[in-house]
Amino acid sequence: MIPRDLTPAETAALLGRGAVLIDIREKDELGAGVIPGAAHLPLSRLEAMPLPAAAGQTVVFHCRSGRRTAQNAAALGAKAAGCEAYLLGGGIDGWRAAGLPVAEGA
Question: Which is the catalytic residue, given 12, 15, 19, 63?
Answer without folding.
Answer: 63
